[in-house]
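Thread amino acids onto this structure.
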């Protein structure tokens, strides 16, 4: 296993999509503090400018670039890679983090589904396909970190398009890591970031203060870096409300629906409510 210090270090290059706020910006700060050159990609120009200025104060203007990018469009990711390679020469860390979470239902307009899948799933796939080949070709160790969600594993009722997109990110990232570890000479590894409840623009709603249950983006990124240092593939983050043990029970129960031939999403089925509660609380 490659030492994380051989990747996240001075003069190496990190790319973060959705990097102008939330978890993406918190990760970009850590990369900049480690002396890396950092490329931010985001579709919000105002936030992108503010984030660039913040990182320039940390790493210096020469080591930071910010490119307005919509990851829903592959050609914009291709333009982003060209700009980064021209400026910095190569990429060592790719964090496919951009995501959206508008409400959907099964019968929502097709455009709503298309938009979520284009950003959350195809943005990850295209980001990997665009940057991955050159990351492999330069031969230096590196990371591809894809931001998933617990909702892509337990798929709770509500917002099915988001759940589908994040379930796809999980399946894609698992397949990616399998391919990388079976590619001769590959020094790139893939990792699935699975945040808990994090107080970001995506989750804040009408709230102006962080709920006690939520982690900050910085806490999430610190946990991510600790997990990467151990070589973890599944970076399953807790928060101030849900410990890892409860996450594990919820995930095990979800898989048990198949094994036990229960109704789908039985955790929310009235006939199984008490059984699930006992399962989740058992020692």
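Threaded sequence (283 positions):
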């Amino acid at each position: 296993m490659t030492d994380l210090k051989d990747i996240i270090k001075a003069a190496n290059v990190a790319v973060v999509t959705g990097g102008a706020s939330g978890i993406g910006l918190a990760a970009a700060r850590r990369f900049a503090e480690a002396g890396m050159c950092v490329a931010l990609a985001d579709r919000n120009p105002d936030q992108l400018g503010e984030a660039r200025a913040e990182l320039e104060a940390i790493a210096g203007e020469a080591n930071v670039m910010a490119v307005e990018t919509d990851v829903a469009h592959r050609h914009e990711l291709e333009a982003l890679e060209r700009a980064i390679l021209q400026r910095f020469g190569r990429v060592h860390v790719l964090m496919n983090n951009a995501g959206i979470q508008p409400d959907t239902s099964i019968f929502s307009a097709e455009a709503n589904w298309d938009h979520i899948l284009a950003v959350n799933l195809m943005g990850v796939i295209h980001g990997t396909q665009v940057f991955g080949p050159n990351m492999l070709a330069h031969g230096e160790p590196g990371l591809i970190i894809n931001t998933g969600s617990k909702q892509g594993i337990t798929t709770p009722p509500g917002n099915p398009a988001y759940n589908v997109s994040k379930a796809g990110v999980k399946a894609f990232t698992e397949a990616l890591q399998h391919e990388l570890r079976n590619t001769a000479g590959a020094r790139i590894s893939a990792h699935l970031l699975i945040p808990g409840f994090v107080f970001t623009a995506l989750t804040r709603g009408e709230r102006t203060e962080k709920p006690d249950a939520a982690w900050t983006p910085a806490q999430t990124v610190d946990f991510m870096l600790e997990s990467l240092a151990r070589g973890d593939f599944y970076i399953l983050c807790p928060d101030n409300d849900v410990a890892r043990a409860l996450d594990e029970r919820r995930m095990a129960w979800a898989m048990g629906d198949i094994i036990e031939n229960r109704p789908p999403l039985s955790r929310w089925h009235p006939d199984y409510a008490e059984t699930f509660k006992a399962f989740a609380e058992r020692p």
